[in-house]
Amino acid sequence: xxxxxxxxxxxxxxxxxxxxxxxxxxxxxxxxxxxxxxxxxxxxxxxxxxxxxxxxxxxxxxxxxxxxxxxxxxxxxxxxxxxxxxxxxxxxxxxxxxxxxxxxxxxxxxxxxxxxxxxxxxxxxxxxxxxxxxxxxxxxxxxxxxxxxxxxxxxxxxxxxxxxxxxxxxxxxxxxxxxxxxxxxxxxxxxxxxxxxxxxxxxxxxxxxxxxxxxxxxxxxxxxxxxxxxxxxxxxxxxxxxxxxxxxxxxxxx
Length: 254
Known about the structure:
Elements: E1 8-11, H1 17-28, E2 32-37, H2 41-53, E3 58-62, H3 68-82, E4 87-90, H4 105-132, E5 138-142, H5 155-175, E6 181-187, H6 201-209, H7 219-230, E7 241-244
Parallel strand pairs: 1-2, 1-4, 2-3, 4-5, 5-6, 6-7
Helix pairs in contact: 1-2, 1-7, 3-4, 4-5
């Protein structure tokens, strides 16, 4: 029996990268998974196949997390397919990276709508189901060390990730009455497909050499942290901001 046997997880942005790693980590521990995606349908289908290969049920569901009606539809589909929701992972994000003096309102709105607004929608919709059905569930939010440090050229993303911290701590406080745990993982620099929108392979390799661990983190390493937080092994862990960055923040300035 896995630590998440009999549980159902809804993971936003689960077609690739950290979201996929979370879905697979949960499946390894016995959970069934709804794989949310927006624009990578083939990748989402591949995530479903990998979850099923681990012996668990999975379904892909297309939804824009910035659209509340679509998010509500996604959770309705999870209930119809699996009959319950025990774990929610808010992972989907958007990042428009611009220096502060060049930030546009459009770029700011796009980033906040998905990264912060989408996190709110996914968490609230999931929490309402858990509270109504009296499920002692777990919500895991994928934050970022951008929510701890004002990295240059990332104004909109930094704002969104700092906002996630406040959202999560408020949720943890209020949802304790419903026995719903809420925690945040702040990954450092992780080797995901999304990083290749902003850097070449050579730049990623050079950047990795400057990190304390001398490499980028792997999505699976974040997925396993998420699986721990979702499990009863973390039964008294709520309101925690858990950094998983290979000491990147600790080494800033050296």
